[in-house]
Design goal:
Layout: E1 8-14, E2 16-17, E3 20-28, E4 31-35, E5 38-40, H1 47-59, E6 61-77, E7 86-101, E8 110-116, H2 118-122, H3 132-141, H4 155-158
Parallel strand pairs: 1-7
Antiparallel strand pairs: 1-5, 2-3, 3-4, 3-8, 6-7
Length: 167
């Protein structure tokens, strides 16, 4: 039997306020890096649910996605996979509305939230979690977006009958 190749599906929140973008600073296997509130799609959730959850877990704030900024394919070294194996990521970046901040612990490895301008972000590309961090901000600033209606999640993806495995 041959291995089936599967990209790792991730989501990211592009949150702008008065020319500043919400980022998280996190510990990674390659040092302390900046990223948008972002993470992996989990079984039983839609892409929109995933970006809302990840923003709450990583930045302790509510987020309501309003548009899809883009879909991105990249390759990088994963700290999740044994031996630092190369991983292909399929990222869905969302623009949206920032909601309330909450007093709650942040995900393991997340140090803090920070606000940075596009120029500040461009000045520290060596500290980005991936090259997609700046690309997503630039696409947002160019006005690139698509309606969320383009993303359809069939009920079978979020509701699994009792006893049936996800995936």
């Amino acid at each position: 039997m041959t291995d089936v190749w599967k990209p790792s599906v991730t989501v990211a929140a592009i949150i702008e306020r008065a020319g500043q973008f919400l980022l998280i600073e996190e510990e990674t296997s390659t040092g302390i890096k900046f990223n948008q509130p972002a993470g992996h799609l989990e079984a039983g959730e839609s892409l929109q649910q995933a970006v809302v959850r990840e923003t709450l877990e990583e930045a302790a704030c509510d987020f309501t996605p309003t548009a899809l900024i883009g879909t991105y394919l990249s390759r990088g070294v994963s700290s999740i996979r044994a031996g630092g194996e190369s991983t292909t990521y399929l990222r869905f970046a969302f623009a949206g509305d920032l909601g309330a901040f909450h007093q709650r612990p942040l995900d393991t490895g997340i140090l803090r939230s920070v606000w940075m301008s596009r120029d500040e972000l461009a000045a520290c590309t060596d500290r980005h979690r991936s090259p997609l961090v700046l690309r997503c901000v630039d696409d947002y600033l160019r006005g690139q977006s698509a309606p969320l209606a383009l993303l359809y999640t069939d009920i079978s993806a979020i509701h699994t009958p009792a006893g049936a495995p996800h995936g």
